[in-house]
């Protein structure tokens, strides 16, 4: 059974790739992921805000300590060098590369086209096989047009593209007026792949303190369908590698996403809940499904039920909506 | 080729000390702390000494501890050193006698500083080193930064050769903190000067069980005396040995020193002899005078002990007839100061023994100069020479002050300048401590000093205010070495930079400007408008001196570049652009290089922001054309308002206005006693934003005055009919529950005293129901509100204070109506200490006496010119004093004992006069319980009545009773200080005073580091925190002071955090004070040394308590009598991880960047510890009452 696939020009043993999560922070866990069959690993994200915060902290430490009194011109000792978040990230990247045989995809996460994108070059030098550019932007300004929002993504991508030669995939959310067109813009701007979709983390209100508080819920299996739907639409309409991320909890999801056209499927929440061994189980289940259904290889089944290849492609359009409406009780 | 590096005297000395030692014991004290900090930092970085080992640097609990450790290390054969100053040196004296008596070679490096006498001074003079001249240490004086390095090595070399320990000293601040360009001694030179055979010999003398001997014996009258005389040959030989070492160094590096160096005319008749940095100014002035054919000279004393008369005589020109010996110290009651007497006795001895070098005995006079870093200028030097030229020169004179009391002072010409200034470029910069002016100037000096053939000097005058501190930087650049150890004088600066607009109305800074100088002002005003914002005198000076005037809106440039409020590189760029000191393009390239060096890969964004700021600066720098006529109506603001009391007008105001140097002796108190309540007169207006109160939203909870670190927001309740003359904008609202009496309540801000720290806004719980982001307090810009709110504040102040008898003290809103008697301190924005002190003054201020350990609280509490301690309308209020750092507990105990004695005597006299005063009145006073406000009030009434009777009596007994009867009313003794005092240097005393059982109240303001001296580690520093002297993180946990005190069982102990649980703090203070025995309150005090923005002060306290890091509890020895366990744990089981607290403070988080493994290890250990402590406390609290009661003894008997 040939489970191999190609993603961002990388030959992968199978289509199961753990996505950016804390799992990659520990070398032992990363090794377990590989041992259980992960075909590549997306590292945890290097966040723009973390870099900014660290810079501010450093600025305060280095030049904000003096009060102007004779007895003390500083309060905390300043060392000649510090391991920055970047240093730690690059160290971990190098360590993962040393430990693992599978490709390692680094992840940059931010929303502005500031200096942080320059770190892409360092990531490439440290040996990353590819780079996932995760742009999580919430357009709170209602005066900002959809075109401007898209351009923000495109510009960041272009900046990163200028820095590196390794493949870049953009991890984006689903909330664009014309997602396909937008993804085409990303392709034109130099992306090699697209990873869909970022999950929308909604904060909540604490009704005691009236504070708005961040909340984190792990993904649920039903979230996979949104990904499958858009993968199916995109397959055949773009030259980009397609990764599905969000709601992939079992082999069925993986199979559906592959059928829709995904080159790989990412897992995160399910791995956090069930541990690295889940990969092995899922891969075995996928293989036995393929065997049962007489598929020889992943490349054979990949995209075989996309919008361009499905028996009933109209279901990926408005028809699905109509049928769902009709099926509603009452 | 030796490197030329710009550094200060502390670094110069520390480099040699570190290279040539193995064990370094340290303790922080200004101005010597940086030597210890540098050593500890080099040790942490594993930098090796001359022998390839990394010196071990250890902090002790006091200088006495450091000296003991050094003594032990020396006795055990290690090369050992320490650094200190002032009181620290005094604490080392006993060990210094021992170290010298046992001929242990070492060099003690001292940044010489004044001693605390009528007042403490952190500044430089020789009072400290002169106090140890009898210890047997040799004493070697460095006069400059270069010498601090060179003579440190000569001392180290000589001590090994002679076995006599050396005290190597240089002037505190003037040399220890002056930046100057020095030639660094290379390792090969140091190597050549240190003879390893001598090192081995020292090691071979070590106490070791392998070759046992005994030292430190007790000696009887038969041999002690002879034993003291055994060392004489060593001391006799030492001067020549030191001279030889000086010659050796000269061979190696070309700089020749002698025991006494002479400079001046070979036929000089008038000579000044002195040591220390002042010698540089005298030398410079002598050059100037000799060039004008004056027969003058100067002898620079380098080796002061042993004092070699022979070498001195050989140094003096034969022609000398008049000698002035200048001492930078004072010995009250002596026939003269030490150096004067040594010189006089030496010459007299020489002549009386038949010495023929001089035709007649020179006339020798002595004078004092430069005490407490008083300026010593060329004009003063000339005045001393002029005095010598008088027929009858004045002896025992002073120079540098105006002594209209005992008329010791010489007059001088303050405009006198030396030739050395020709070709020199001099620059002065006025900045805020927090705006980075000093660091930018240090950087500028580096840039200028690194250029071949160019010398740069920098000296920085600091403020003693911690919030809104002003710094004045004095920079000089020249093509020859700069010896001018005095500030840039009036009319001498080619450039004056004003980095804060508000200073133009405070300081006459253009007095400094030379003719044709450049003035740079940071202002938001346009080039068209800025002229009108200047005071008249400033406009006049710009015109009269033909100056050029430039402006920049540096805050705007900073903001545009993403630099926030950091304007330092912007102002630095302006300086280089318009001062002409370097071609601007070269300067800018070098500024960028320095930025790159500082931030490098650690913060690429920071580098980019700085570069952007630098690049946009020039485009935003404008020259203002100066009109021909003065047009301004404004003048520099008076320092205090005209209604201030006479002393404040005459003395305090002059100090505030930076004219304190001109105050004559007669105006100053001779015993250090100053009036309280003076901070209220100093309207500093340092806040950019102040809180604005919304009466519609307020719920009158009292939290804002409770948390305010500067007592700048207050509440009062008053009848509505008092509002008749209220200003139109004065805000108030009905008092809930006070409707029947038509009572109103107001929360009013003192706009010119507020610092804008945001804590009141942060704590405000009163929210707009329709807009969750709006609260009853919001920060708004000061300027449009300043005048209006100042008027409202004045109105608020004249409203009556609440009657203390009406206040229900357990209720926060009511307790906060009590008048605070601690207001407008100079503490940092968001200070975590001051709210505790203010609270204590609200609760007990009218009966409070405070013994205050040296530290932050003694600086913001008692650093002239003003004090925040104040009086109520009855004239009562906290009486305050600072003794020392180490003895504060004992000092406070002394108060208690004296008060009790006075009260006892009052009772005796009352009893004996009962027939006159009435038995009822007498017994009512003697038997009064005084357990609450009403009792105390009644007691004061009773005392008042008796005093009236006594005043009418003309008897000795009545006079005696009048002098003590006020002590029959309760007095509350408070012993306040930081953790450096309570946990470390003063712990022995604190422990002993707790053990006495006497009624004193300890308030430990626990910032967990030595905050005042710059954040050095104390035993209160937690595991995992980075601090000075713990650059790699503290490995062991914080000492549990509370548990130690609880072990006595008669001590009331509370651990509080006002920002976490305010009512708990309030309750603990009241319980502590009411306990008729010792009380200890350990108060968590967030501090800038924690590496946290103190606008988050309250959040940090909550995180600390919620994580279990800071426990809240009360241990009340009265409870067992009520059948209750004495311990009450007042915090809940940790609800957040310790990491959630640790990661918010840089003191913890930077360890993750520097030592990630240790950071994790310490965090894990501390996490376990805080959970274990919670459960341990809960177990103690749960002990059966009977068992707990048995364990608790009653308070100790009063002696």
List the helices and strands and how they pair.
The complex is a heterodimer of chains A (330) and B (1199).
Chain A: E1 5-7, E2 10-12, E3 16-18, H1 27-35, E4 41-47, H2 48-63, H3 85-99, E5 104-109, H4 119-125, E6 130-134, H5 146-163, E7 168-172, H6 179-188, E8 193-196, E9 204-205, E10 212-213, H7 224-234, E11 241-244, H8 251-260, E12 264-267, H9 269-274, H10 277-292, H11 298-301, H12 318-327
Parallel strand pairs in A: 3-12, 4-5, 5-6, 6-7, 7-8, 8-11, 11-12
Antiparallel strand pairs in A: 1-2, 9-10
Helix pairs in contact in A: 7-8, 8-10
Chain B: E1 4-8, H1 9-19, E2 23-26, H2 33-44, E3 56-59, H3 63-75, E4 80-84, H4 86-101, E5 107-112, H5 127-130, E6 138-141, H6 145-162, E7 166-171, E8 179-183, H7 187-193, H8 196-204, H9 224-229, H10 232-253, E9 260-264, E10 270-274, H11 278-290, E11 296-301, E12 303-305, H12 309-315, E13 322-327, H13 338-352, E14 363-369, H14 378-389, E15 397-399, E16 409-410, E17 425-432, H15 437-449, E18 455-461, E19 470-478, E20 493-498, E21 513-522, H16 530-533, H17 536-544, E22 548-552, H18 554-560, H19 568-579, H20 584-599, H21 604-617, E23 622-624, H22 646-656, E24 689-693, H23 703-707, E25 713-719, E26 733-734, E27 743-749, H24 759-763, E28 767-768, E29 771-775, E30 777-781, H25 783-798, H26 812-815, H27 834-844, E31 848-852, H28 856-862, E32 879-881, H29 888-912, H30 914-917, H31 919-926, H32 933-952, H33 956-964, E33 972-978, H34 979-985, H35 987-996, E34 1001-1006, E35 1009-1010, E36 1016-1017, H36 1041-1046, E37 1052-1056, H37 1062-1074, E38 1079-1084, H38 1097-1106, E39 1113-1115, E40 1127-1129, H39 1138-1142, H40 1146-1154, ...
Parallel strand pairs in B: 2-3, 2-4, 4-5, 5-7, 6-7, 10-11, 10-13, 13-14, 14-15, 15-16, 17-20, 20-21, 21-22, 31-32, 31-33, 33-34, 34-38, 37-38
Antiparallel strand pairs in B: 1-8, 6-12, 8-18, 9-11, 17-19, 18-19, 22-23, 24-30, 25-27, 26-27, 28-29, 35-36, 37-39, 39-40
């Amino acid at each position: 059974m040939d489970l191999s696939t190609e993603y961002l020009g990388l030959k992968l043993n199978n289509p199961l790739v753990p996505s950016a999560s804390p799992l990659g922070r520990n070398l032992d866990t990363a090794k377990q992921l590989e041992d259980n069959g992960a075909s590549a690993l997306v590292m945890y994200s290097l966040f723009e805000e973390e870099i900014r915060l660290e810079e501010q902290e450093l600025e305060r430490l280095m030049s904000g300590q003096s009060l102007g009194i004779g007895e003390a011109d500083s309060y905390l000792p300043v060392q000649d060098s510090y391991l920055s978040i970047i240093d730690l990230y690059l160290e971990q990247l190098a360590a993962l590369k040393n430990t693992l045989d599978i490709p390692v995809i680094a992840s940059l996460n931010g929303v502005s086209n500031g200096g942080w994108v320059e770190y892409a070059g360092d990531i490439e030098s440290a040996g990353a096989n590819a780079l996932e550019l995760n742009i999580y932007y919430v357009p709170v300004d209602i005066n900002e047009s959809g075109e401007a929002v898209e351009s923000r993504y495109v510009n960041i991508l272009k900046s990163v593209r200028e820095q590196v030669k390794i493949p870049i995939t953009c991890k984006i959310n689903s909330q664009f007026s014309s997602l396909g067109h937008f993804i085409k813009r990303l392709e034109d701007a130099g992306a090699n792949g697209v990873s869909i979709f970022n999950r929308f983390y909604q904060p909540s209100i604490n009704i005691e303190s009236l504070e708005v508080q961040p909340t984190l819920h792990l993904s649920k299996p039903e979230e996979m369908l949104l990904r499958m739907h858009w993968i199916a639409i995109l397959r055949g309409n773009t030259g980009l590698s397609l990764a599905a991320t969000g709601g992939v909890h079992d082999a069925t999801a993986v199979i559906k996403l592959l059928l829709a056209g995904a080159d790989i499927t990412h897992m995160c929440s399910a791995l956090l809940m069930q541990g690295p061994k889940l990969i092995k189980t899922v891969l075995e289940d996928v293989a036995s499904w393929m065997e049962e259904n007489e598929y020889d290889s992943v490349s054979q089944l990949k995209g075989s039920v996309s919008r361009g290849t499905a028996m009933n492609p109209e279901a990926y359009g408005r028809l699905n909506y109509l049928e769902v409406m009709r099926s509603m009780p009452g | 080729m030796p490197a030329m590096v710009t550094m200060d005297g502390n670094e110069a000395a520390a480099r040699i000390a570190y290279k040539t030692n193995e064990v370094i014991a340290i303790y922080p004290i200004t101005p010597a702390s940086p030597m210890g900090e540098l050593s500890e930092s080099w040790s942490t970085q594993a930098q090796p000494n001359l022998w390839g080992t990394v010196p071990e640097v250890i902090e002790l609990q006091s200088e006495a501890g450091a000296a003991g450790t050094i003594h032990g290390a020396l006795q055990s054969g290690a090369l050992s050193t320490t650094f200190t100053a002032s009181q620290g040196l005094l604490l080392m004296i006993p060990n210094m006698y021992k170290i010298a008596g046992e001929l242990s070679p070492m060099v003690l490096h001292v940044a010489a500083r004044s001693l605390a006498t009528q007042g403490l001074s952190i500044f430089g003079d020789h009072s400290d080193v002169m106090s140890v001249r009898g210890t047997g240490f040799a004493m070697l004086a460095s006069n400059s930064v270069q010498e601090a390095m060179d003579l440190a090595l000569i001392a180290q070399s000589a001590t090994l050769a002679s076995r006599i320990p050396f005290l190597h000293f240089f002037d505190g601040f003037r040399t220890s903190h002056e930046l100057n360009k020095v030639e660094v001694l290379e390792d090969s030179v140091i190597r050549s000067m240190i003879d390893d055979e001598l090192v081995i010999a020292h090691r071979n003398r070590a106490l070791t069980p392998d070759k046992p001997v005994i030292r430190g014996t007790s000696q009887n009258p038969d041999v002690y005396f002879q034993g003291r005389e055994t060392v004489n040959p060593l001391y006799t030989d030492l001067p020549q040995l030191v001279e030889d070492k000086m010659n050796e160094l000269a061979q190696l590096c070309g700089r020749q020193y002698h025991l006494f160096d002479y400079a001046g005319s070979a036929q000089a008749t008038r000579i000044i002899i002195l040591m220390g940095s002042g010698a540089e100014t005298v030398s410079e002035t002598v050059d100037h005078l000799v060039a004008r054919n004056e027969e003058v000279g100067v002898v620079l004393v380098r080796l002061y002990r042993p004092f070699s008369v022979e070498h001195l005589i050989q140094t003096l020109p034969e022609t000398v007839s008049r000698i002035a010996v200048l001492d930078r110290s004072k010995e009250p009651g002596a026939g003269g100061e030490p150096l004067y007497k040594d010189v006089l006795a030496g010459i007299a001895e020489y002549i009386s023994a038949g010495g023929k070098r001089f035709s007649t005995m020179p006339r020798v006079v002595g004078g004092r100069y430069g005490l407490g870093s008083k300026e010593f200028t060329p004009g003063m030097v000339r005045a001393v020479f002029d005095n010598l030229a008088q027929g009858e020169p004045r002896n025992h004179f002073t120079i540098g002050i105006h002594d209209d009391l005992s008329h010791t002072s010489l007059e001088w010409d303050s405009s006198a300048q030396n030739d050395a200034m020709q070709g020199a470029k001099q620059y002065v910069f006025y900045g805020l401590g927090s705006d980075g002016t000093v660091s930018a100037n240090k950087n500028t000096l580096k840039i200028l000093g690194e250029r071949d053939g160019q010398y740069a000097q920098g000296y920085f005058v600091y403020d003693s205010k911690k919030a809104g501190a002003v710094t004045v930087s004095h920079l000089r650049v020249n093509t020859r070495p700069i010896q001018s150890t005095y500030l840039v004088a009036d009319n001498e600066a080619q450039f004056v930079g004003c980095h804060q607009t508000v200073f133009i109305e405070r300081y006459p800074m253009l007095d400094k400007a030379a003719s044709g100088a450049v003035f740079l002002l940071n202002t938001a005003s346009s080039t068209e408008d800025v002229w009108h914002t200047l005071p008249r005198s400033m406009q006049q000076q710009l015109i009269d001196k033909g100056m050029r005037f430039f402006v920049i809106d540096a805050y705007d440039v900073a903001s545009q570049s993403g630099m926030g409020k950091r304007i330092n590189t912007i102002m630095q760029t302006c300086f280089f652009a318009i001062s002409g000191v370097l071609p601007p393009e070269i300067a800018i390239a070098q500024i960028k290089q320095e930025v790159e060096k500082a931030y490098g890969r650690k913060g690429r964004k920071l580098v980019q922001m700085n570069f952007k700021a630098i690049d946009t600066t020039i485009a935003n720098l404008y020259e203002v054309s100066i009109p021909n006529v003065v047009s301004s109506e404004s003048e520099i603001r008076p320092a205090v308002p005209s209604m201030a009391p006479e002393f404040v007008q005459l003395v305090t105001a002059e100090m505030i206005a930076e004219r304190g140097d001109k105050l004559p002796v007669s105006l100053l108190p001779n015993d250090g006693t100053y009036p309280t309540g003076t901070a209220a007169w100093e309207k500093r207006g340092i806040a950019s934003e102040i809180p604005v109160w919304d009466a519609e939203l307020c719920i009158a909870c009292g939290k804002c005055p409770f948390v305010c670190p500067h007592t700048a927001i207050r509440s009062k309740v008053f009848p509505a009919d008092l509002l008749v003359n209220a200003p139109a904008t004065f805000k108030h609202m009905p008092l809930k529950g006070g409707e029947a009496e038509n009572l109103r309540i107001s929360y009013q801000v003192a706009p010119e005293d507020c610092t804008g720290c945001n804590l009141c806004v942060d704590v405000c719980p009163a929210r707009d129901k329709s807009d969750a982001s709006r609260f009853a307090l919001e920060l708004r810009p000061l300027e449009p509100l300043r005048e209006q709110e100042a008027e409202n504040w004045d109105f608020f102040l004249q409203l009556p204070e609440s009657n203390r008898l009406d206040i229900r003290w357990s209720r926060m809103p009511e307790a906060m109506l009590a008048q605070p008697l601690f207001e407008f301190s100079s503490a940092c924005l968001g200070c975590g200490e001051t709210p505790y002190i203010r609270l204590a003054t609200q609760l007990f201020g009218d009966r409070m006496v405070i013994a205050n350990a040296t530290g932050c609280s003694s600086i913001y509490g008692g650093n002239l010119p003003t004090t925040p301690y104040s009086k109520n309308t009855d004239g009562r209020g906290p009486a305050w004093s600072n003794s020392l750092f180490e003895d504060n507990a004992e000092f406070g105990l002394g108060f208690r004992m004296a008060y009790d004695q006075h009260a006892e005597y009052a009772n005796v006299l009352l009893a004996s006069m009962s027939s006159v005063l009435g038995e009822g009145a007498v017994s009512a006073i003697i038997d009064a319980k005084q357990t609450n406000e009403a009792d105390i009030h009644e007691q004061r009434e009773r005392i008042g009545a008796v005093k009236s009777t006594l005043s009418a009596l003309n008897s000795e007994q009545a006079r005696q009773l009048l002098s003590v009867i006020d002590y029959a009313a309760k007095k509350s003794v408070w012993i306040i200080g930081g953790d450096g005092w309570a946990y470390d240097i003063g712990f022995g005393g604190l422990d002993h005073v707790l053990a006495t059982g006497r009624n004193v109240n300890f308030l430990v303001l626990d910032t967990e580091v030595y905050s005042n001296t710059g954040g050095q580690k104390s035993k209160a520093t937690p595991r995992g925190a980075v601090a000075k002297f713990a650059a790699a993180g503290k490995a062991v946990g914080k000492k549990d002071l509370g548990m130690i005190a609880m072990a006595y069982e008669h001590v009331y102990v509370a651990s509080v955090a006002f920002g976490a649980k305010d009512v708990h703090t309030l309750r603990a203070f009241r319980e502590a004070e009411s306990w008729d025995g010792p009380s200890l309150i350990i108060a968590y005090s967030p501090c800038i040394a924690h590496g946290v923005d103190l606008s988050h002060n309250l959040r940090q306290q909550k995180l600390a308590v919620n994580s279990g890091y800071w426990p809240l509890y009360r241990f009340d020895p009265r409870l067992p009598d009520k059948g209750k366990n004495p311990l009450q744990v007042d915090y809940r089981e940790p609800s957040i991880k310790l990491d959630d607290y640790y990661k918010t403070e840089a003191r913890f988080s930077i360890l993750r960047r520097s030592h990630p493994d240790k950071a994790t290890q310490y965090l894990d250990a501390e996490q376990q510890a805080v959970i274990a402590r919670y459960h341990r406390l809960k177990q103690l609290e749960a002990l059966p009452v009977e068992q707990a009661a048995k364990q608790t003894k009653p308070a100790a008997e009063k002696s």
